[in-house]
Specification:
It holds the Pfam family MTS. By secondary structure, the chain is α/β, with parallel strands linked by helices. The protein contains 14 helices and 18 strands. The chain has two domains: 3-210, Rossmann fold (3-Layer(aba) Sandwich); 220-437, Rossmann fold. It starts with a helix and ends with a strand.
């Protein structure tokens, strides 16, 4: 792709209100290699007239774009494939929103060919990549290699399940992060797997011949101390394992719920306000749903397995009133949490959202936050800023944030800049839990 054609394809960005977010839509070196291996010489030509590589005919059906963070792969695909539709499955909701805006601003003809999973469709269920209602028939799929083998397995098997005969999957990455085990994972869903020609530090893996009837991606599952079953789809953080930071946060959340219930009971006994109003809790960045699961279980058993020994009984037979919203920007996390919290559908909802944008201001009594702090292998403490802003926005006056972080990091100043008071509830060698009051 020449500079001239790239400029034409992305000329809509300059006048966009979202220009800063969309400025990265020109493909980088890896994305150019992925497009080349997916569409052949057409991806290098100025006009896109050259025929796609013979091993895959993108014009015969839909093209699936996987994990496009900026819109570059989607716009490149639209330019070089004659597909009826380009179906885009992004791992993060903010990436999906960028792709949708980029397609819309490229004009109605382009916008009409793009289907963004989760925005233009329902979220997929189970191990699906694309909801069955979309009716996909994939001839070419392309994207970046994911970080985890579990996520790669989800992408490979999910693609094979909706692929036409002769379809191929092209996934590119940095060669120093690639391993033979990735080929083995792809071979579970495709008959032929090979490495493409490397360029610079990048290379693509090319899988052809989707295996008919290949088993679907199997989510990880693990029982958590009699509390319930954790589920981990694809690349969700910690898979189906309880992470120690989340466990520390859940401990403090249960203590918060116990204290709230005791205050409510005291108010009722003293003739005060009715204490039956549900506690409104936002699990911000819920991951596999561990923290919400433990809190919901504690509420259902009046604050955990030790409640019966304490003689702690609720008026409604042991259940404390609780209304939980669990949200995450990663699609695999949302699907994992939906499965983890399935038994509590009457009091918990799970949403695919960026920094609680769907949550009303001043609508939550408690926010639980176990934030990310890595961008790749690099520590980036700025990742939490938008989440802290969101927590402050959605809390009622005197509402509380419970925030867990690695003990060697210093987040307290960021909380003190946003909240009326901050104190430490727990600290050990690994993790610290802070309480902030609005």
């Amino acid at each position: 792709m020449t500079d001239a054609s790239r400029s034409a394809a992305h000329s809509f960005i300059a006048d966009s209100a979202d220009a800063p977010a969309l400025a990265a839509t020109a493909p980088d070196a890896l994305e150019r290699l992925i497009l080349h291996d997916a569409f052949g010489d057409a991806a290098d030509s100025a006009d896109g007239d050259a025929a796609p590589a013979s091993s895959g005919d993108a014009s015969a059906g839909d093209v699936l774009v996987l994990g496009d963070d900026t819109g570059a792969l989607t716009l490149g695909t639209l330019q070089h494939a004659a597909a009826a539709r380009v179906i885009v499955r992004c791992g993060a909701v903010d990436a999906a929103q960028r792709v949708r805006v980029a397609a819309d601003q490229a004009g109605p003809e382009v916008a009409g060919r793009v289907v963004v999973v989760g925005l233009d469709t329902d979220l997929p269920g189970g191990a699906e990549l694309v909801p069955a209602s979309v009716g996909p028939r994939i001839t070419t799929a392309l994207g970046r290699l994911p970080k985890s083998l579990a996520e790669l397995d989800l992408l490979a098997r999910g693609t094979a399940a909706i692929a036409a005969d002769g379809a191929r999957l092209v996934l590119g990455g940095n060669q120093k992060h690639m391993a033979r085990s990735m080929n083995d994972v792809l071979a579970g869903a495709f008959e032929n797997v090979r490495g493409g020609f490397g360029k610079g530090k990048h290379r693509c893996l090319i899988a052809t011949g989707p295996i008919a009837g290949a088993a679907a991606h199997e989510a990880q599952r693990q029982e958590v101390l009699g509390v319930g079953m954790l589920t981990g789809f694809g690349g969700v953080f910690s898979g189906a394992k309880p992470d120690r930071g989340g466990s520390a946060l859940a401990d403090q959340a249960i203590r918060w719920l116990t204290a709230r219930s005791e205050r409510a009971a005291g108010a009722e006994n003293g003739g005060g306000a009715d204490g039956a109003a549900p506690a409104r809790v936002l699990d911000l960045g819920c991951g596999n749903g561990l923290v919400s699961l433990r809190l919901l279980h504690a509420a259902a058993t009046k604050h955990g397995p030790g409640a019966a020994k304490r003689g702690d009984k609720a008026r409604d037979g042991g259940a404390a009133a609780l209304d939980v919203t669990a949200t995450d920007h990663q699609i695999d996390a949302v699907r994992s949490a939906e499965s983890t919290l399935a038994r509590y559908r009457d009091r918990a909802r799970v949403t695919w959202d960026d920094a609680a944008s769907q949550v009303e201001d001043a609508s939550m009594d408690l926010v639980l936050l176990n934030p990310p702090f890595h961008e790749g292998a690099r520590i980036d403490m700025t990742l939490v800023q938008g989440l802290l802003d969101a927590a402050q926005r959605v809390l009622v006056d005197s509402g509380e944030l419970l925030f867990v972080h690695n003990s060697h990091l210093r987040y307290r100043p960021a909380l003190e800049a946003r909240f009326a008071s901050v104190n430490e509830l727990h600290r050990d060698r690994m993790f610290t839990v802070l309480r902030a009051v609005k």
